[in-house]
Each structure stands twice: as structure tokens, then as C-alpha cells.
Amino acid sequence: MGEPTAAEADPDPRDDGWLGDFTRGPAVFSVYRTGPNNGGHPLIPPEYRIECCDGAAPRVICRFSDEPEAVFEWFGAWRGDEWCPWILENAQRLIAKPENT
């Protein structure tokens, strides 16, 4: 999989699956539920994406699904970044207790 296209990064605002935001320094991270379990089949694990806006336009930095052996797909400069564990910890917090409810 390559980096997401602009169309993938800009979901339909009526059904964007937004779970919440968190910040670190000037960066704002947003977590979204996407894919089949955002209103899809109950047997397919939900998928998530994390976006970052650090002064430029928001962009997708990570995608993963809620599986026991989930693979976290990081994009661009975020691959191997020291903030990745902290970002995932906060994303999991929002998945467990979304701000949009």
C-alpha cells in the first residue's frame, strides 16, 4: 500500500468516523474509525487511521485494524518516529472511549 490519496484523506463529512483528537506541541492528531466496521459487516475488524496536522493540511500518518496481531502502517517521516508509541497509546485511549459520543 502506498500513501493515501487526497480522496482517502478527506472522507465524506457526514460519515467520517471521527473518534477524537489529542495534541503534542504544535501537532494535532485525529483518530478515525474507517472501513467496513464504520457501519459495515460485524465480523470484519474495524479499521482506523490517524491524521496529523502540524501547521500544514492534515495528512494520514498511520493506518491499522483492530486485530490481535495488528500491523501498524506508518507513512512518510513517521516510520520509526520516536513519538509513534505515544501516538498509538493515545489513539487506543480514544478508540476505547471516543470523544464523539
Account of the protein in words:
The protein has 101 residues and is of the alpha+beta class. Helix content is 17%, strand content 31%. Strands 1-2-3-4-5 form a five-stranded antiparallel sheet, with helices on one face.
Question: Strand arrangement, largest sheet?
Answer: 1-2-3-4-5
Q: Can you summarize the main beta sheet?
A: 5 strands, antiparallel
Radius of gyration: 13 Å
Average pLDDT works out at 83
Shape: globular
- The number of helical segments is 2
SSE order, as H and E?
HEEEEEH
- How big a fraction of the residues is strand? 25-35%
Helical content stands at 10-25%
Structural descriptors:
101 residues, alpha+beta, 5-stranded antiparallel beta sheet, 2 helices
SSE inventory with pairings:
Layout: H1 6-9, E1 18-24, E2 27-34, E3 47-53, E4 59-65, E5 73-74, H2 84-96
Antiparallel strand pairs: 1-2, 2-3, 3-4, 4-5
Quick structural overview:
Helices cover 17% and strands 31% of the residues.
